[in-house]
Structures are given as structure tokens and as C-alpha cells.
Design goal:
Number of strands: 7
Order of helices and strands: EHEEEHEHEE
CATH class: Alpha Beta
Helix content: 10-25%
Number of domains: 1
CATH architecture: 3-Layer(aba) Sandwich
CATH topology: Aminopeptidase
Length: 148
């Protein structure tokens, strides 16, 4: 992993131009960006986050925040020149930390067939309630005080 990585939550959505450039680099054919700025859950909030190396944006992700229940991660893309260097794993850990800071205890996502193993390596497991989705509980362990 490169020591100069920086995680940035954005205050405004990515432009369609930036999103399409990342999708093209990833080999995705989907050019429809019409729904990426709207939350699918009532009361949900869409936030884009990025990872930068130096001054270059090398990764993006769309977070649909639905506190206090979950965060749904989609459109997570690391530029092809930065793959295989630990950037994606570092980025996911930062997303988890970001969610924990917002009081969100669970991360959900719907992986593609070719990246499912990546998420499973990060301790994501099949969600028994939603076929094709993976989940990870990120709530820190709670200490229980037993009444003696």
C-alpha cells in the first residue's frame, strides 16, 4: 500500500464525467448515471467518497447511508493502475471507519462475480435475507457489565 493515500468524504456528488471515466477504466459498460445521486431508502442519504494518492483521485465509492441501520456501498472503483497494491482494501477499511463514526453498524453491498472473493477476504458474508448481497457487521465489540 502506498503511504500517501488519503480518504475524502465529498460534500457534493461526483460529476457524471468523473463517474463515467472511472466506469470506463473499470471496463463497465453501464453509462446510465441517472439514479446514482438518489437514495433508494426513504430517509437515506447518498455520499460519495474518494481515495487520493498524492493529488490524484485513484478510487471512488458511492455510499447510501441509512443510519442507524446500514450503509450500502456501490460503484466502488479503484483505477486500474492502482489495483493489486492494497488500495481497495485500504479504501474499504476507511469506509468502515467512516460508517462507525456515523454510528452505522453494518455495511451492505452487491458484488459482481469477479470481485466477490475480494469482499469475502475482508470478512463480508452472504446476507441470508437478500440473495446476492454481502454484509459485514462493523460495530465494535461491546463490553458488558455484569451485575454481580
Amino acid at each position: 500500500m502506498q503511504p500517501s493515500l488519503r480518504f475524502l468524504p465529498l460534500s457534493a456528488p461526483l460529476t457524471d464525467k468523473v463517474l463515467l471515466a472511472f466506469r470506463k477504466d473499470a471496463g463497465w459498460s453501464n453509462r446510465d448515471t441517472s439514479g446514482v445521486h438518489k437514495a433508494g431508502q426513504p430517509g437515506g442519504l447518498v455520499q460519495w467518497v474518494t481515495v487520493e494518492s498524492g493529488k490524484k483521485r485513484v478510487g471512488i465509492a458511492r455510499l447510501e447511508l441509512a443510519p442507524p441501520q446500514f450503509c450500502f456501498v456501490s460503484d466502488l472503483i479503484v483505477l486500474s493502475d492502482y489495483r493489486g497494491r492494497g488500495v481497495g482494501e485500504w479504501f474499504m477499511r476507511q469506509i468502515e471507519q467512516h460508517c462507525m463514526g456515523l454510528g452505522i453498524p453494518r455495511v451492505l453491498l452487491q458484488p459482481m462475480d469477479d470481485n466477490r472473493a475480494f469482499y469475502e477476504k475482508l470478512d463480508f458474508v452472504a446476507d441470508p435475507l437478500a440473495a446476492g448481497f454481502l454484509k459485514k457487521d462493523i460495530r465494535p465489540p461491546q463490553r458488558r457489565i455484569l451485575p454481580f
